[in-house]
Every structure is written in C-alpha cells, then in structure tokens.
Amino acid sequence: MILDRFKLTGQVAVVTGAGRGIGAATAVALAEAGADVVIASRTESQLAEVAARVAAAGRRAHVVPADLSSPDAAAALASTAVAEFGRLDLVVNNVGGAYPRPLLETTAEFLEEAFRFNVSTAHALTAAAAPSLLETGGSVVNISSVMGRVSGRGFAAYGTAKAALAHYTRLAAADLAPRVRVNAIAVGSVATSALEIVVGNPELREKMESATPLRKIGEAEDIAATVVFLASRAGAYVTGKVLEVDGGLQAPNLELGLPDL
C-alpha cells in the first residue's frame, strides 16, 4: 500500500520551535504518522498542550523548555532524544525568525543574530544528531522561507538567513549522503501567530491572498504534511532539495510600504 510509505512507526523525532504554529502542527503530524517526539521551545505551557495532542495520537512526547537561540541548547536535544527514547531518526529545524527592519537600521549585530537563530542553531543540532542519524538512516528537514529566494524591502536579515539555511541544506545533504537525507521547505505565508496581524485584518488578508496564485494563506498542516513526506519512505529518493510550499509565490505577497531612500 502506497500509504504505508508515509508511516513513521517506531521512529523518534526532534522538533524545535514546537510550542505553536508550524512546529506544533509538525510534532502532531509526526505522532499521527507513528513517531515519538522531543519537542522544544521557550514556553512550557504551550509545549504541554502539544504533548497532550501527541498523546491523543497514541505516541509519546518529551517536553524540553529551552531558549533555542543558543546553539548549545539546540545541540543538546540530540542526546536528550537518545536518552529518552533510545534512538533518533529525524530532526526538524523549525525554530527561527527575525523581525523586518529597514536596511539602514539592520545593524551587523542584528544580521548576525538572525544568522545564529536561523542557521547556527540548525547546524548545531544537525551536527550533534548526525551520529545517531547515521545509525538509523535518518533525515533532517529544515524550515526555510520564500523570503530566502524572493526580494522584498525590510527582509535583509531574515531573507539572508533563510537563503543561507537553504544552501546549508544542499551542502549538508552532500556531506551526509548516502546514509542521511537532508531537505528543506521554503515556506510561504502561513496562518500562524507571526501573521496574526494579517490574518485578523480582513483588508490585509484579502490583499495578501489576492497576490498569491492559489488565492489563500497556507495552513500549518500544509507544512507538517510536507515534513512527513520528506521524513518518511515516501521521500526516500529526495535529498539536498528545497521544496517550495508557498501557494505559487514568485514575489512577496505583502509589501511593508518602506519608502525610497
């Protein structure tokens, strides 16, 4: 049965930024596919809610409240997974982000902070997990962004970091082949708390949707389903790729309105 290729029965995953949004949806989706999960983010109460959803799916979740802007904290999740569950099959580097900021207000320190939060943490966890992933023949899925490949004012830090994460994916895939697959998802506009100001404003939402070829904002489950595909045997012949799950975007679908200099 083709659907059997999407199953992750008995596998163990680490999902960062798992307290809400894409991370939470991904943790639950992986559990529904049969995996146990280590879930980490800053807010323990949010993680507890996700853990309850994982349990409702019949799997186990180990909660790790942590400041994942620290590469060391991210790296520690690999050994936590092995200690709690005895193995590690999948890493989902979802934590990241950076606020939009005009170019001349984007300091070198802000750019470096964006790089550390989006790229250095992903590398730290991937490198720490690699020995276990090599044993299990596992995989890594990095959450990049459409802003890593299209141009829009105000996204110099965020877009640069996500572009770096996308190419890091290709490079890490080459280093870890053939035993470990590494892929990424370039995420478009998804209805999470980060887009709350848009989703809750009918005028802004309509403007964003009309500029998206599929005429809608994505759902966190759209990304979670793609993670399941990439992590499972369904994606067994895919590595070093960045899948664009963005509603068909070829340009930003909401400009920030920053003026000419």
Automatic annotation (TrEMBL):
Q: Which CDD domains match?
A: SDR_c
Q: Which Gene3D superfamilies match?
A: NAD(P)-binding Rossmann-like Domain
Query: Pfam families annotated for this entry?
Result: adh_short_C2
Which UniProt keywords are listed?
Oxidoreductase
Q: Which PROSITE patterns match?
A: ADH_SHORT
Residue ranges occupied by any Ketoreductase domain in the UniProt entry = 11-183
The record's comment on protein family reads: Belongs to the short-chain dehydrogenases/reductases (SDR) family.
**This protein is called what?**
SDR family oxidoreductase
